[in-house]
Amino acid sequence: MPRTPLPKAVFAMDPVHLPLLFPEPVMARLRQTADIDPGLVVQDLADPRAAAALADAEVLVTGWGCPHLDAAALTAAPALRAVLHAAGSVRSLVGEALWRHGVSVSSAADANAVPVAEYTLAMILLAGKDAFAHRERFRATHTHPTPAQTAATGNLGRRVGVIGASRVGRRLLDLLRPYDLQALLYDPHVTAADAAALGAEPLPLDELLRRSDIVSLHAPDLPETRHMLDRRRLALIRDGGVLINTSRGALVDHDALTGELVSGRLAAVLDVTDPEPPPADSPLYTLPNVFLTPHIAGSLGNELERLGRTVVSELERLAAGLPPAHAVRYDDLARVA
Q: Which residues are catalytic?
């Protein structure tokens, strides 16, 4: 019997990401599944050098740096039937024209959630030990802490408030299960039974903030979630509480948060800010009660390979006539990242 031709695919992303997303073993597996040229990575759909490949392309393998996919993408790639995104959100990537045309869209957001949840778990445990404050004190005094200075330290029974049962939020709740921590959850789309299955106590947002020792943000960046932690809600967090944000900076009123941090009433672990990065004169860079990192919680370095593997698995399903395992549905875009 004649061999079924491989689906024709084209890379569309910043080429700098290609070697880490698709190292040699993953690239070899990809090339067994699709007719794709590793030497052609499109950043401009109007580039004449890519015209011939795009004209036949059934699949776009996209990533960070991919151009916006709108009606022009369908003009350049009239045979397009799937976009497989080797990164997280596709909300700003895929335009209305592709959804209307019925192009299948898949994302590696589940895979990208893994390192974010791992980072967050590490920060929760370190914050519970008050590791950041002890580090600053040790660096300044070169002495071990007194019993009085460690009285409020420890992770036994500490209450962790998770805002958002997103991919990251759910994975984090799963990672929290082995620890002697109390998980609280706010998500308006999650029932009490679903929260219990996730191992968390469901609470209204204000009540979660009042009861939590550590608050971790995992909600999507939507118009209705902008500044969901405003001045009033930040004031509900108990004195000495810790805010962890690995989601989006816009979820927090940063002027109000900065005031709380400068006063020393709260501490924070911030992998994202608004704006990002903070202005050069921001006190967030130097406050001893702020652990600030440059948006590193998501996939970096060798973790990118996990995203590439996800795309290859999706392409294998596509080649076998199966639907994607990580499909993005248009109707979900209004409430997901």
A: 248, 276, 295
| CA–CA distance, 201 with 199 (Å, rounded to integer) | 7
Look at 204 and 151; give whichever has higher pLDDT: 204
- The answer to whether residues 211 and 259 belong to one domain is yes
In this structure, are 171 and 44 located in the same domain? no
pLDDT tens sequence across 157-177: 999 999 999 999 999 999 999
Co-location of 125 and 86 in the same domain: no
- Confirm whether 3 is domain-assigned: no
Q: Distance (Å, rounded) from C-alpha 105 to C-alpha 160?
A: 34
Cβ neighbours of residue 32 closer than 8 Å, sequence gap 6 or more: none
For residue 79, give its domain range.
Answer: 9-107+301-332
Residues near 173 by beta carbon (within 8 Å), at least 6 away in sequence: 162, 165, 183, 185, 198, 199, 200
Joined together, the tokens standing for residue 227 give 């500044």
d(CA 179, CA 197): 16
281 in the same domain as 220: yes
Domain count, the chain: 2
Comparing C-alpha atoms, which of 205, 227, 209, 233 is closest to residue 160? 209
Amino acid at 115: P
Where do we find the tokens 């979660």?
Answer: 208
